Amino acid sequence: MKTIEIKNFLKNKVGYQKEGAKRLRKHLIKKGYQTTVEQCRIALREVRQEVKQPKDEIINPLKVLIYDIETSYNIVKSWRVGYKLNINPSDILEERKIICISYKWSGEDQVYNLTWDKQQDDKFMIEQFIEVLNDADLIVAHNGDRYDLKFIKTRAIYHDLPMLLNYPQFDTLKVAKKKFMFNSNKLDYISEFLGFENKIKTTMKLWDDIILHDCPKAMDDMVKYCDMDVILLEKVYNKLVSWELPKAHLGVLNGKNIQTSPITGGINLELIKSVTSPRGTVKHIIKDLDSNRLFEMSASNYKKYLEINK
Predict the structure, then answer these.
(1) Co-location of 230 and 285 in the same domain
(2) Taking 60 as the threshold, does the pLDDT of residue 55 lie above it?
(3) Both 39 and 186 in a single domain?
């Protein structure tokens, strides 16, 4: 049975469009047709793509914020130099702050940046960026869980600026450590390993010129350095995202039920495999056929999905 014949069958028997490739093949074989799972998968994908969504079913995409921060160092008093120093918090002359923040929305070209003011005060910059954070459905940073987001929150509480309690975050460093064995988990190395550009090379003199000498040229270079990190981060994120379970549910965000795909909000789904926990809890590994990405769905939700889309 040719793929075009399977497509014609699916168009005449609309109910079978909700089946997975393996189950469709079984149905066709029972009806006397000879085909393969791959032919069924291709036919299902093409037929589903030909079905146009009604205007009221248009899905608003996930608002993914890619960001990076650059921070100043603590200025302290010390009686000597060396590697094993005991510097007490009381020896801090000036607390570390955020020098600049660069960010972009995934899929867009524009990179935005914010910097501390002429008095090296980061309050207004953080106040502006919190509004950006609050507008995102998902935020992305490299080492964001342990550093970037915590540092922003630390400066926010210092300035008495309110923030949301939680921000769904995709930490590319955490995913790199958990899923892979790169020789280095630094953003620069991973970017090069995946075939992208390198970070802009710089030295600590750049920080000295900004923090100690208030050099405008150095600040411009710092912003460019931070902007480039964001551009590379988005490319790395786009490579790693399919290796991790979704951090947000696009279907629910668009007012749909939980039995839709968390990745696209659609219902073009295929059951890949069922797994159980040691306690016997059943989970289904589902493929979103519109994005070719995998996610998990509970047994009860998958049963409802089948009932809804029967």
Answers:
(1) no
(2) no
(3) no
What are the start-end ranges of the H helices in the chain? 3-12, 21-30, 37-50, 123-134, 149-158, 172-179, 187-193, 204-211, 216-240, 250-253, 299-308
Distance between CA atoms of residues 128 and 117, nearest Å: 13
Bridge partners of 22? none
Cα gap 58→60, rounded to integer Å: 7
Helix axis angle, 3-12 relative to 21-30, nearest 10°? 90
14 phi/psi in degrees, rounded to 5: -60, -35
Domain extent, residue 27, equals 3-51
Angle in degrees, CA 215, 219, 224, rounded to 5: 150
**Whether the Cβ atoms of residue 223 and residue 100 lie closer than 8 Å to each other:** yes
If asked whether residues 173 and 267 sit together in one domain, one would say no
Q: Using CA atoms, how far apart are residues 96 and 269, in angstroms rounded to an integer? A: 49
Give the H or E element holding residue 284: strand 282-288
Integer angstrom CA distances of residue 78 from 74, 115, 211 = 12, 29, 18
Report the number of distinct structural domains present in the chain. 3
Model confidence over 161-204: pLDDT tens digits? 999 999 999 999 999 999 999 999 999 999 999 999 999 999 99
Q: Which of 181-219 are b and which e, b meaning 16 or more Cβ less than 10 Å from the residue's Cβ?
A: eeeebebbebbeeeebeebbeeeeebbebbbeeeeeebb
Q: Which two tokens stand for residue 153?
A: 């929150």
**CB neighbours of residue 34 within 10 Å:** 9
Is the pTM above the cut of 0.85? Answer: no
User: What are the backbone dihedrals phi and psi of residue 248, each rounded to the nearest 5 degrees, phi first?
Assistant: -145, 160
